[in-house]
Amino acid sequence: MVKSNKHSTGDTNMSHKASVHQKGNFTLNDLMDGIRKNERYEKTGAITLFIGVARGENNQGEKVQELTLEAYEEKANEVLEGICNDLVKTPGIVDVQIHHLLGDFKVGEDLVYVSVAGSHRTDVFPVLREAVERYKHEAPVFKKERVIDTKGVEQESWVSENENKKP
Q: Cβ(135)–Cβ(76) under 8 Å?
């Protein structure tokens, strides 16, 4: 696992439609500014937004204390950009962005922003869902959970997204 470095240390360059960022270096306002700066923004009639947050309980019923998110940044940025570039070709879609935060997170803190702007609401919802599902399966972002298990013991472990899915 590679800890975040070059792209995530303050890069809020809006030319990136997708990127990983060190926690605190990219905000929801940055995302909205980027959407509005799109040269095709006047065609937008709807914007959908997914905000992934640190959940207080994992799928095994353990109490989550904190998460650490890391990424293989160069590949993560490439994958996220690829997803956005694919999905923005969908008819009626103006803009797709995915911005994943890295670092240490308390329960309730934002982890990821995914936005889709399009001509009509019926255009944007299916693309938003696809963008979320794809980044979760394709992007090399790694999660470590610090939990109190069902017996009250503190533990930490790296979690695979596939292992953490509800049955």
A: no
The pLDDT tens digits of the residues spanning 33-82 come to 999 999 999 999 999 999 999 999 998 889 999 999 999 999 999 999 99
Residue 89 DSSP label: T
**CA pair distance 74, 6, nearest whole angstrom:** 9
Quick one: 110 exposed, middle or buried, by C-beta within 10 A (0-12, 13-18, 19+)? middle
Task: Give kind and range of the element (H or E) at residue 63.
Answer: strand 63-71
| Token digits of residue 35 | 């959407």
Number of Cβ within a 10 Å radius of residue 154:
10
Give the C-alpha separation, 156 to 85, whole Å. 36
pTM greater than 0.90: no
Domains of the chain: 6-57+72-141 (3.90.1170.40)
Comparing CA positions, the residue from 9, 20, 6 lying closest to residue 140 is 20
